[in-house]
Write a structure and sequence with these properties.
By secondary structure, this protein is an alpha/beta fold. It is 47% helix and 14% strand. It contains eight helices and seven strands; from the N terminus they run βαβαβαβαβαβαααβ. Strands 3-2-1-4-5-6-7 form a seven-stranded parallel sheet, with helices on both faces. Strand 4, helix 4 and strand 5 form a beta-alpha-beta unit. The longest helix is centred in the middle third of the chain and has 22 residues.
Length: 262
């Protein structure tokens, strides 16, 4: 299916690895022009080169910590200067530190807010002036935790719900301008972070990582852990004109892990 993303300008945050990288790869394969950022310059540069070599898509890469307001402002400004506009924004950031209420202090809560909520606010704020008058799309990555809290991930369970509230409100505010805002909530996907969480759980329970991984996979209706490209495919669809009447939604990509009916 041709999503009509050829020559569109797509900004992908936290795109050097994991889901962010997969999203950037899908956009590039669809013919989009890319601007990507991440904290680590080495991994970011390697990702940019691999995408350019694989797809031929132009890639602007800049080191940027999305918890830093000034860094976001600079990244978006340079992207707009290079490409002239921004058609779609993929909002992404690393997950906040794991822990229970007794383990987390005010500093940890503030860091989670800056990383996941304020980065979303700032990326959108800086991008909006560069979106065409005809409209654009914003897709925000959160987690299944916005529907189904995850034990041991108190910060994610708390802060990401604020992101959903922001997204739903912005969908209403920006709809008259033709800008759509949607949220994607992955379940358990094979990333470096998910593997580290499995390792932490295995250590806490005194069991092998293999056993914990198999247990986690078995919780999903499809009986397996997801792949990053499966999230990337949904993000690209939501960013495209093929999803032109979809806004204000939160869609799970979880293999049926979410247990609720709504």
């Amino acid at each position: 299916m041709d999503l009509g993303l050829k020559d569109k300008v797509a900004v992908c945050a936290a795109a050097s690895k994991g889901i962010g990288k997969a999203v950037a790869q899908v956009f590039a394969r669809e013919g989009a022009k890319l601007a990507i950022c991440a904290r680590g310059p080495e991994a970011l540069g390697e990702t940019a080169r691999s995408i350019e070599n694989e797809t031929g898509a132009p890639v602007f890469a800049k080191t940027c910590d999305v918890s830093d307001a000034a860094a976001i402002k600079e990244f978006i400004a340079e992207t707009a200067e290079k490409f002239g506009r921004i058609d779609t924004l993929f909002v992404n950031a690393g997950g906040p530190k794991p822990g229970t209420f007794d383990e987390l202090d005010d500093e940890a809560f503030q860091a989670a807010v800056d990383l996941n909520l304020m980065s979303t606010v700032r990326l959108i704020r800086e991008t909006l002036p560069h979106m065409p008058k005809a409209g654009g799309s914003i897709v925000i990555l959160t987690s299944i935790s916005v529907k189904q809290p995850i034990a041991g991930l108190l910060l994610s369970n708390t802060v990401r719900l604020g992101v959903v509230g922001l997204a739903k409100t912005l969908a209403n505010e920006l709809g008259p301008r033709g800008i759509r805002v949607n949220v994607v909530g992955p379940g358990f996907v094979d990333t470096e972070r998910s593997r580290s969480l499995l390792a932490r759980r295995a250590k806490q329970r005194g069991e092998t990582e293999e056993k914990i991984r198999a247990e986690q996979a078995g919780k999903a209706a499809l009986g397996r852990i997801g792949e990053t490209v499966e999230v990337g495919n949904l993000v690209a669809f939501l960013a495209s004109d093929a999803a032109s009447y979809i806004t204000g939604t939160t869609i799970m990509v979880d293999g049926g892990l979410y247990a609720g009916s709504l």
